[in-house]
Design goal:
Blueprint: E1 2-7, E2 10-17, E3 31-40, E4 44-49, E5 53-54, H1 55-70, E6 77-80, E7 86-91, E8 96-99, E9 102-105, E10 110-119, E11 122-133, H2 134-147, H3 156-163, E12 167-168
Antiparallel strand pairs: 1-2, 1-12, 2-3, 3-4, 3-5, 6-7, 7-10, 8-9, 10-11
Length: 172
């Protein structure tokens, strides 16, 4: 299943396959396959695959998103994938963030997804940033719960997000 979010006109699609709980895995660093599509403005079309997340990174992100949504995260926190392709900046309410007009305090939680761009097998100084608000964070958290097997296609939240177009089943 794909996660799909409309981020102010940008179509963000994210898919994780092959997740195995670390409790079930024989090794510490079991990885899952990630596919990412970002499209929208000015016919932008960015497709990324082949950069994986480790299963424990999926679990850690899910735990931290839950804490962010519940108000348990009290300071800015970064989660970075081991291969440094994906970064997640978790911002509790009141965090100061850089904007085009300077620095502002956010009134509600925010998640900043950062994609580090690579060239010739190494990270560059270029990054692609997308900021997500509470509603999108809730959908992302629910998606991670589905990926981890805590929810299935028959759960009400999953059905609701499918009907709203936030989750795309394999057959679509």
């Amino acid at each position: 299943m794909w996660l799909r979010l409309d981020n102010e006109g940008l179509d963000f699609q994210f898919r994780i396959d092959g997740y195995i709980s670390n409790l079930k895995a024989d090794i510490d660093y079991e990885s899952c396959y990630v596919r990412l599509h970002i499209g929208g403005f000015y016919e932008m079309n960015l497709d990324i695959s082949g950069y994986d997340l480790y299963c424990d990174e999926v679990e850690h992100l899910s735990i931290k998103l839950s804490a962010l949504l519940k108000g348990e995260l009290i300071e800015l926190e970064y989660i970075e994938s081991l291969d440094s392709v994906y970064r997640f900046k978790l911002c509790p309410a009141g965090t100061e963030i850089a904007t085009y007009s300077g620095v502002d305090k956010i009134s509600d939680i925010m998640l900043e997804f950062i994609l580090v761009l690579w060239a010739n097998g190494a990270p560059t100084d270029n990054e692609f940033h997308l900021r997500f608000k509470r509603d999108d964070i809730e959908v992302m958290y629910t998606y991670l719960q589905y990926v981890q097997g805590h929810l299935n296609k028959n759960d009400k939240k999953i059905k609701d997000f499918i009907s709203e177009g936030h989750l795309l089943p394999d057959y679509l």
